[in-house]
Design a protein that fits this description.
about 325 residues; Rossmann fold; about 35% helix; 7-stranded mixed sheet; alpha/beta; Dihydrodipicolinate Reductase, domain 2
Length: about 325
C-alpha cells in the first residue's frame, strides 16, 4: 500500500481538523510527503464550512455526523475530545474504518491497542478498529525509557512534568496570552492563574491524591511497554506555549553505567541526546524526544535526565501519523 496509487485510492479523513492537533496532523502529513487526494476534514457545526489547506489545495471542512462516519473510511484520525470519540469512533469502526484516536476515551480499554509505533507497533498486525494514541507526556517519556528497559529492566520511575498550555488546545494558549496582557483576566481553563505561575494539577485530583494526568502516566507506561514498573508522577502546568519538559529519575533491575546509557540513547532514532540540555523553545516543530542533563544519582542506583518534546507533534499528531504509516508501509 506504500505506492502513490495506494495513497490516491485511500479513503481518509481527520475528525477535529480545525483544532490545534488536527491542524498539526495535516501539517505533518504534508511534511512527510503524503498525497491523499481523497482527504476529508470534519469538525463541529461551528467550524464546518471553513477551509484548510493541504498540499496547496483548499479542502472544505464538513460537519461531523453519524451518517458520514457510516460511509466506511480506510483510516480516520480523531482529535476532537473524549466525548466526541466515544460517540463517533465506534460507529466509524463498526462500518469498517480504522480509527486512530487521540483522546483518552479508549486508552485503558484492554481490547484496544495503545500504541507508540517505535515500541509496540507489532500488536497492530491484522488489526482493524479503534487504536488509541497515548497521552502527550507519556509518549515522550516511553520513547526514552523503552530502549533502556530492554537492556536493564525498568523498575521505578519518578517524574515531574512541566507541561505547556497547548496541551489544552487553543483555549489554553489564549488564556495564557490574555492573562499576560490583562492581569485581571479570569481563569476559565485552569484552576489557578497560569500567567507567571506554575500549577501542580492537570486534570481532577482523584481519591488517591494523584491527578488524572499523573495516573495516565502510570497506567499508559505500563500498558505500552508491557512493564510492571512503578511510575510516580507530579504533573505541572507551566506558562510555556509549546513543549513539555520532564525531570526523570529511573531505577533498573540490572546494573548500568552512564557511557552505555548514552550509547543506547544515541543509537535510538527517535531520540536526540544533548551535550548540555534542550529547552522547549529549541524543540518546537521537531519530531524527536530530546534528552539532556544525564547523570547518576548520588546513591548510585538511579539515572536522572531532562526530557523535552513538542507536545503537539511528538505527543499527539506525529505519533498518530506514524501509526497510520505502519499500516501504509507494512
Amino acid at each position: 500500500m506504500s505506492s502513490l496509487k495506494a495513497q490516491r485510492d485511500l479513503k481518509f479523513g481527520i475528525v477535529g481538523a480545525t483544532g490545534e492537533v488536527g491542524r498539526t496532523m495535516i501539517e505533518v502529513l504534508e511534511e512527510r510527503g503524503y498525497n491523499l487526494p481523497n482527504m476529508r476534514l470534519f469538525s463541529s457545526k461551528r467550524s464546518a464550512g471553513s477551509t484548510l489547506t493541504f498540499n496547496s489545495k483548499k479542502i472544505l471542512v464538513e460537519e461531523l455526523t453519524e451518517a458520514t462516519m457510516k460511509e466506511g473510511f480506510d483510516f480516520l484520525l480523531f482529535s476532537a475530545g473524549k466525548e466526541i470519540s466515544k460517540k463517533f469512533a465506534p460507529i466509524a469502526a463498526a462500518y469498517g474504518s480504522t480509527v486512530i484516536d487521540n483522546s483518552s476515551a479508549f486508552r485503558m480499554n484492554h481490547s484496544i491497542p495503545l500504541v507508540v509505533p517505535e515500541i509496540n507497533a507489532h500488536i497492530l498486525n491484522g488489526y482493524q478498529g479503534i487504536i488509541a494514541n497515548p497521552n502527550c507526556s507519556t509518549i515522550q517519556l516511553v520513547l526514552t525509557l523503552n530502549p533502556l528497559h530492554l537492556h536493564y529492566n525498568l523498575k521505578q520511575v519518578i517524574v515531574t512534568t512541566m507541561q505547556a498550555v497547548s496541551g489544552s488546545g487553543y483555549k489554553g494558549i489564549n488564556e495564557l496570552k490574555s492573562q499576560i496582557l490583562d492581569d485581571n483576566f479570569k481563569s476559565n481553563v485552569y484552576p489557578r492563574k497560569i500567567a507567571y505561575n506554575c500549577i501542580p494539577q492537570i486534570g481532577p485530583i482523584l481519591k488517591n491524591a494523584f491527578s488524572e494526568e499523573e495516573m495516565k502516566m502510570l497506567d499508559e507506561t505500563q500498558k505500552i511497554m508491557n512493564c510492571s514498573c512503578s511510575v510516580d508522577a507530579t504533573t505541572v502546568r507551566v506558562p510555556v506555549t509549546y513543549g513539555h519538559s520532564e525531570s526523570v529519575y529511573a531505577e533498573f533491575e540490572k546494573e548500568f553505567n552512564l557511557n552505555d546509557v548514552k550509547k543506547i540513547l544515541k543509537n535510538t532514532p527517535s531520540i536526540k541526546v544533548w551535550v548540555d540540555y534542550p529547552t522547549a523553545l529549541e524543540t518546537k516543530g521537531d519530531d524527536l524526544s530530546h534528552i539532556g542533563r544525564l547523570r547518576i544519582s548520588h546513591n548510585g542506583k538511579g539515572l536522572l535526565f531532562w526530557n523535552v518534546a513538542d507536545n503537539v507533534r511528538v505527543g499527539a499528531a506525529t505519533n498518530a501519523v506514524k501509526i497510520l504509516e505502519y499500516f501504509i508501509h507494512e
